[in-house]
Write a structure and sequence with these properties.
Keywords: Ribonucleoprotein, Ribosomal protein, RNA-binding, rRNA-binding. With 208 residues, the chain is of the alpha+beta class. It has three helices and 13 strands, in the order βαββαββββββββββα. The strands form three sheets. A six-stranded mixed β-barrel has the order 1-3-2-6-5-4. A four-stranded mixed beta sheet has the order 10-7-9-12, with no helix packed on it. The chain has a three-stranded antiparallel beta sheet with strand order 8-13-11, with no helix packed on it.
Amino acid sequence: MSDKLTLAATRRTEFGKGYARRIRANHQIPAVIYGHGEEPQHVILPGHDTMMALKNPNALLTIDIEGEEKQLTVAKDVQRDPIKPVIVHIDLLTVKKGEKITVDVPVHLEGESAPGTIHVLENSSLQILAEATHLPEYLTLSIDGMEEGDKKVAADIELPKGSELAVDPELLVVHVTVPRQAAEEEPAAAEGETASEDATETDEGDDN
């Protein structure tokens, strides 16, 4: 489950692209806190601490605004620079203990499919409805021993207590197949064996 982390924030009073660039140049991150019908709050977060906190999927974040106000939140949208390893902006959703929210949770595969096969992960994450203060970091799905043609869907994943799927239970998550090269080699080998047998029969016929 996600740990509760505290980030010290300051209120943002100036806006515009130029000011946002200055915030990021100062190793900070602009963010907005919203939810429960309250007015959105624009804040500035510490860059390094925030990036470290967001390494944990669905981390529960306590935002301490200038020591005057604390908001319990989860990150709903993290905008990253397409080139540089920096966060451009964060949308934070306020949550309360006991309420449920919809989140995307990564799928973690365990085990190995049958020898000679490969697994294809069709959906690397799933949306679930879970208690805000008990969000899972990932969902575990075993593929151990799965054969060619086998598949597993969203309903095959065991969810944490109190959670439920927010997607179609029949949504394909993973399926097992044989690599195309291996599949093509088998018929080719069979044709080679037939040709060899034909040649042998021809040789024997010539002797007669």
